[in-house]
Design goal:
By secondary structure, the protein is α/β, with parallel strands linked by helices. The protein is built from twelve helices and ten strands.
Length: 272
Amino acid sequence: MPHARISPESPIGIFDSGIGGLTVVKAVQAALPAERIIYFGDTARVPYGPKSQVTIRRYAREDTEILMKHQPKMIIVACNTVSALALDVVEEAAGEIPVIGVLKAGAELASRRSGSGRIGVIGTQATIGSNAYACAIQEEDPAIEVISKACPLFVPLAEEGFIDHAATRLVAEEYLAPLVASRIDTLVLGCTHYPILKSMIASIAGPGIDIIDSAEAVADKTRALLAAQGMLNPGTGAAMPHLLVSDLPQKFRELYRLFMGTELPDVELVGV
């Protein structure tokens, strides 16, 4: 794709396996209100977490190709599973435009923030099984000890809107107990759904544990990268995100409200 067609006014493309990546949209909007955002949620094929690497890599390519039709100036992989297992596929499909993965941004921030060098990571089965967070954190600082835990029930609980529910607290206490016992001082939310449960997770982790929201880390990295390239949108208005989904489940409107705190804008259905 010729680079000449990309300008500071071009949109930022963001994709996720479903709706969890809206936490990244929200963080990028808060940091960069003038930017146009095209978001693709692969709601027909969610979740990616339990699927095989071959399938995840194929989906990653298809998701990127959907966004590339909109000529974005950057692609953000809001899916931790794709960030862990298929970032190279996205980079190849994106050609010359920069790609930011939620995983590396979160790992960089966690390693900067940790004082004791003991970091906990929670995520889906695929993300934790890939060991990608531990590798990315130890790339930043080999002395850091990483304690990882898959928390597969957090995604359905978040999507159910069980933010402040007794069932969520029980599950969270069960998942987080070994991490808290390991005396971590930093906990990475290694799945884009988890910020929805952030206050519950923080209350169980206690005040001594710094919670790293990868969505905020991505937003900071996005601003820095666009500024360095002179590609920040000079506009002053706040643009609504343009939403693409591969399936429009009944619950999409309420999930959008849950994740974004606003009413749903127009949604475009795309085939995968």
